[in-house]
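Async update (no meeting this week)

Hi team, since we skipped the sync, here's where things stand on the single-chain job. The sequence we agreed to prioritize is pasted below, unchanged from the tracker. I ran it this morning and attached the output directly underneath so nobody has to dig for it. Comments welcome in thread, and please keep replies under the output.
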Amino acid sequence: MLDTQTILQIIAARQDFSDFKLVETDKQSYEMFFVHSKVETVRKAHSLDRQITVYVNHDGKRGSNSFDLNASVDEDRLKAMLDRAKEQAELIFDEPYVLPNDETCNVVIDSDLADAEPMDAAAKLADAVFEANSHSDCDINALEIFVVKSVLRVVNSRGIDKTQTKYTAHVEAIPTANGEDDSVELFENYDLASLDADWLRDEISARLDDVKARLSAKKPEEALSCPIVLNANELSELFTAIVNDLNYANQYMHVNLHSVGDAIQDNPKGDRLCISARGSVKGSASSNSFDLDGTNLTDRELVHDGRVVAGFGSSRFAGYLGKTPTGALGCVDVRVGTTPCEELLKAPHLELVYLSGLQVELLNDYIGGEIRLAYYFDGEKRTPVTGIAFSGKLSEALNTVTLSEERTVRGNYAGPCKAKIEGVRIF
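Output:
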């Protein structure tokens, strides 16, 4: 296998490239696989992924081509791949842009996983899952735990040489409930940036309650008419869609709905939205110090009190638009509201727990989804329901949103645990 220095020397020796970039990701993981509560497999894994991008300026334009480099490639094969990449790059006619330049760093993303032995961390997370697994008539059918050390390096021909080390854990669990004639299961997927066993224990316990409820859930006999309550998973999808609309790439290609100065809440009756894109959020496994171009990540508030105040994006598209690059920000941070979850859930509502997938279409002004499990609260009784769907106008839904004051971090999302939305149709 070619070492990194040899690869860089071979590429740098080429006089027919205007620029080049190497992205290298070195991952070491400790992995545990369980069936029910019995460990079936324990293994260590190591992978080294490399991607090379070559840039060729031609005819007043800029072309690029990327390819992956596997471990079996020798010098002759690499040179042939570079020749092919040059030919492909010459078929691309992008507007000229400049790569990030002249910066080096070696950073470690803060996490208590960095201080733990991978075997011990995986065992602690497994213990937390199985401590929660004390419900009758339901079980964790399968569990997979990965504790990962990931080292990312970005090098380019303009003096960028940056390295980032990140420690994360990935947990996949399948809560299952068995009835006399049927069984149901849920698939849970968590990316963690810290060794928070207490949080995982509580989360798995709640999901076991949900899978048991799903076994008994039925379609309501009559149509429901009430507000809906979204939880963190769906809020992540909703606000990520809004944030993505404000990416400089979408603005440059004229596929965005909103621009600076536009209102995403034109007549808010609930909380006014404040949404930021961030490079790093404490507790989020999506946190990074720089992006895959080597651009330092700079946090940016995008929406303030329901109105768009900024965009964000990579050095390339920021350059096209004459903006300051923020880098490709991966975390979404939403300001919490002032209503406690307990208060938010007091009036009749339908709390959505599992959807086939939240559908958010900004250009069509649509929000909706098929509901696999929800809890209907009529003011006195909380009943699990399934087999229904909801839909509504996104712009109207955003005008009615009430955000919880409690905050959570889930995946790339940091913000209110829950949000209530009015005016959607449930059918």
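Quick observations from my side:
The chain has nine helices and 23 strands.
The mean pLDDT is 96.
Reply here if anything looks off.
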